[in-house]
Structures are given as C-alpha cells and as structure tokens.
Amino acid sequence: MNSPWWVKRVYMENIAPAELKQWAELYCEIWKEPPWNEDFWKPEEVIKDFQTEMSNPDSAAFLLLVDGSVKGFTHGYSVNREELRAIANNDLLDTIFSEDKRIYYIDELGVAKECRGLGFGKLLTARLQSEALGMGIRKVVLRTDTQAKAARRVYEESDFIDLKVFDANYPNRTYWLCKA
Ligand SMILES: CC(C)(COP(=O)(O)OP(=O)(O)OC[C@H]1O[C@@H](n2cnc3c(N)ncnc32)[C@H](O)[C@@H]1OP(=O)(O)O)[C@@H](O)C(=O)NCCC(=O)NCCS
Question: Is the CB of 109 under 6 A from ligand 1?
Fold first, then answer.
C-alpha cells in the first residue's frame, strides 16, 4: 500500500464527525455482504450505537485510516459470564471462564473491499488482543460465521481456535477463543 495509513484508537473526544460518518457508512456496506446479508443497517442508527459504545469506558474501538479516510474498524469490550450468556443466548461458554472473572469480546471487524488481503484485518485484531492484555485479560472470544472464510483465516492466524460452540440465535455462527 503506497498511501499513508494508520490505526487510530477512537473515543468520543477524538473522533471527527467525518470519521464517524465514514465508519457508519462502511459498516452498513460491509454487513450487506454474504454471509452476513444484513441490509437493514442505517448510518444514523449505527452512529448512535457507536457513540454509546465509545462512551463505555470498558470498550475500545480502532479505525483504519487510509489517506485520512476510514477503511476499516474493530471494536471490543470485556464481558463476564452472564454478559457472554446474553450474547451467545445460551450458557455453553460458561466453562471458558474457569478462574477468569472477565473475558474480552471482539464485537466487530471489517475492512473495506479495496484494502483487503494486506494484513489489516490481522493488525486490527492484534490491537484488540493487546487491549485485552493491557487490561489484564488473557482470554479473547468472538463469534463468526462458518462461511466467513476470510474472517476465519484472520482468526486462525491470530491464534484463535474454533470452539465449535454454536450461537442459539445464529445457527451458522460459532465462538472462537484465544488464550494469551
Ligand atoms: C474479514 C476481513 C476483516 C479480513 O480483512 P483483511 O484486511 O483482508 O484481512 P488480512 O489481510 O489480515 O487477512 C485475510 C486473510 O484471509 C485470506 N482470505 C481472503 N479471502 C479468503 C477466502 N475466500 N478463503 C480463504 N481465505 C481467504 C487471505 O488470503 C488472508 O490470509 P493470508 O494472510 O494467509 O493470505 C474482511 O474480509 C472483511 O471485512 N470481511 C467482511 C466482514 C467480516 O466478515 N468481518 C468479520 C466478522 S466476525
């Protein structure tokens, strides 16, 4: 990639309105793709969700900026056993907690089509893994679709293992775990 790029940790205080808008538009575009097929996201609603997420001190969001434009994003936060049950809609992940009170959950990852295959997906994932470690959390969990081939590759290469635990509401999505 010849264009200048960087990864920015975004907070309510440092995100520019144009970045928020581009992030929301990219988010809506990316989730329309198969296997997600989510064509219902609206930028205005997504922006409200981002603002709520960024105001949570326990969450972290990173944007990939290329030539000053948002071309990728990731977002995560820590969860306790009950919170992960609410995400997975079952209690099948209880056992991964063992002695851990909190585990880090990667909620979102997306890279614009024109910037894929350059390592940005892995880089953004690594940023959230470091964030978890910085909080003293050694386990990171996420959910992805069995047909999301690029995402699965990214997570395999980022030391995640498919637990083959299926979500109760999304029967094609399984949970993956990485232990630092
Ligand atoms: C998943 C996603 C973020 C990856 O972004 P990226 O910047 O291309 O990721 P990277 O370049 O770090 O790595 C991609 C890897 O997937 C591989 N890949 C891409 N398409 C693939 C396919 N169809 N089958 C198998 N592997 C594939 C690439 O070759 C690369 O692996 P390599 O480094 O061993 O060659 C991006 O494809 C995306 O936004 N997809 C749509 C949203 C999504 O699925 N998000 C994850 C939700 S859990």
Answer: yes
- Indicate if the pLDDT at residue 19 is higher than 90: yes
Average pLDDT over the chain, rounded to an integer? 96
The answer to whether the CB of 144 is under 6 A from ligand 1 is: yes
Q: What is the pLDDT of residue 58?
A: 87
> Which residues are bridge partners to 110 per DSSP?
73
Q: What is the CATH number of the domain that holds 105?
A: 3.40.630.30
pLDDT at 1 over 90: no
Range of the domain at 93: 5-179
Q: Which helix (H) or strand (E) holds 27?
A: helix 17-30
Locate 115 and state its tokens: 């910037």
Best CA proximity match to 178, nearest among 115, 128, 108, 116 = 128
* Best probe residue, ligand 1, of 27, 116, 175 (max atoms within 8 Å of C-beta): 116
What pLDDT, on a 0 to 100 scale, did the predictor assign at position 98?
Answer: 85
Number of domains within the chain: 1
